[in-house]
Amino acid sequence: MGAALDAGYRHLDTAAAYGNEKEVGQALRASGIDRKDVVVETKIWISDYGTEETPRGIEKSRAKLGVDQIDLLLLHQPLPTDFDRTLAAYRALEDALSTGTVRAIGVSNFLPEHLSDLLEHTHVVPAVNQIEVHPYFQQRELEAMNARHGILTQAWSPIGGITSYGGGQRRSFDDPTLHEIATAHGATAAQVMLAWHLQQGRQVIPKSVHVERIQENLDALNLELTAEELARIDSLETGVRSGPEPASLTLAEHGRPIPEA
Ligand SMILES: NC(=O)c1ccc[n+]([C@@H]2O[C@H](COP(=O)([O-])OP(=O)(O)OC[C@H]3O[C@@H](n4cnc5c(N)ncnc54)[C@H](OP(=O)(O)O)[C@@H]3O)[C@@H](O)[C@H]2O)c1
Fold it and tell me: Quick one: which of 174, 125, 169, 131 has its CA closest to 151?
């Protein structure tokens, strides 16, 4: 995290469920960068959904991060089997927004039906829906729905990291089309994927533990693809989700407790 801040990254994505909010807060303070220049984004896990649970969850995240105000706070997942609990959690986010504990609120992994339900029963339109998007899984319908409601699509696994984990069969990093486009620009496949997102209006949160890749990914800001190249990347869609199916999540199976600060 320190290397990313040194390189110029100013948006940090973490989550209560990642177990690294303390380290993110420490890296932020150690960087010496003015707090107001960094966007700190975190997510409430499903075990902390509920009228009483979510305010406590927010306090745990704030304490671990060591910040007065969280810039962007998301619900990590919809809980389709207990959507009332999801709504109660989101209302707690709305309360935190009104008191200034958080600066913006949003959701993650919400499918169209979850968004519709949320929009019908709550007041504040989410600022962001953070979802799996990479060339092999693009979720265009969901992106369009986000856009119709003024919700920013934030791409997780934007360079298809999730296609490699667990010995994935079709790794985005090996894709011949991406390599061809990359070669034409003297760039890398990762940079081509990042430029593709940015030129199509999505926010990206690539992750690397390697300093040179952290810099490489940032340098994608200087890459501009042609309309034809963007269309070729669009055509890589496989329709196959690599991450967990959002509709299948249950508290019983996935509701591990989030420790106190
Ligand atoms: N909301 C959610 O449910 C959810 C789910 C998953 C992820 N996320 C968020 O999204 C972020 C990114 O997702 P992700 O980590 O799954 O995938 P990613 O950023 O698409 O890819 C990360 C993987 O790619 C490698 N990598 C990074 N830069 C590279 C480069 N330039 N060339 C080649 N390989 C490169 C990394 O390895 P090295 O680290 O070894 O370089 C790592 O294995 C996470 O950090 C997290 O904040 C959210």
Answer: 125
